[in-house]
Amino acid sequence: MSEIETVSVLKTILDKIGLDDSDVQENTGSHGEMVYSYFLEIPDDVDNEALISIEELTGIKLKPGTTVDIPASVYAEQDENNE
Prior knowledge:
Layout: E1 2-3, H1 7-17, E2 24-27, E3 37-41, H2 48-58, E4 67-71, H3 72-82
Parallel strand pairs: 1-4
Antiparallel strand pairs: 2-3, 3-4
């Protein structure tokens, strides 16, 4: 599983794949009481050119159908930047 380490990388991935914040899911663990992190599922039908562009821009190699981990601190930083 890849991990997104900065807000700018998250925004690049979302933009290139044509997704938005509503596609980012919460990881609440088995109890569902606390958000531990977030994740993004790369669609199976994602355009290969978008994945190549993401790799060139961010250094992250993504594959269709994979899950990308987003630390809670990165997603919180994005929320703060959107306010």
